[in-house]
Amino acid sequence: MIVAVDADSRDTAEADHLLYELLEAVDQPVVACTHMVHGGDRPHVAVSLAVAADIAEPIRALLADRFAGVAITQPGASQPELSGPSQLVRGAYVAAVEAALGTAGRVVRWPGHEQGRGVLRAAELRARAGIDHLEAVGGLPITDDALVDTLDFLRPVRREGQLVLQLQPAAGNLLIPFELQHQQKCCADH
Questions:
Q1: CA–CA gap between residue 51 and residue 149 (Å, rounded)
Q2: DSSP category for residue 7
Q3: Above pLDDT 70, what percent of the chain?
Q4: Helix ranges (DSSP H) in 108-169
Q5: pLDDT (tens digit, 9 = 90+) per residue, 130-187?
Q6: Beta-bridge mates of residue 4
């Protein structure tokens, strides 16, 4: 089952906050993602949760008083259940499709995410945390023995059904995640 929600989140931090609220209602393995929504007045971020069991009711209850578009896909259903304001239903639908196909999305939670902590060799990080591919900025090659300091914060992306973690070089011959937990917004200092 996939539940996708577009609450018109302005950025990934706001979308992450919504995801953490939704995850409190889920007590099973989940793949939780954020999805960029283009079109309309401005780009914004929607979220999706992919799980094996039905979580529609607790999610509906959490969202009852919110201005949000929702798309719920049940296994075997011919079409998704859509609800909410039409301008947000479109974003929820796009997020649901991307989650179902595994073609896009910034992954916030997935089975194995809790094992991606500390400094690990690249091969160990892939094996322990369920990451399919490590990719360095600029095409820098990554060997299995390369050391990755996860900084205890990983946000892989989904691409072609795989989890891809983007990395960048850091001091001490280490690689670190491209997305850091506390990002400074571009042009924030001028």
A1: 29
A2: E
A3: 95
A4: 122-129
A5: 999 999 988 889 999 999 999 999 999 999 999 999 999 999 999 999 998 865 555 5
A6: 48, 71
Residue 190 is predicted with a pLDDT of: 44
109 token code pair: 């939670």
152: which 2 tokens? Answer: 């205890």
- Reading the block at residue 85, the tokens are 């304001």
The b/e string for 115-143 (b: 16+ C-beta within 10 A; e otherwise) is bbeeebebebbbeebbbeebebeeeeebe
Taking the complete model, does pTM exceed 0.90, yes or no? no
Sequence ranges of the domains in the chain: 2-109, 113-177
One-letter amino acid for residue 82 of the chain? L
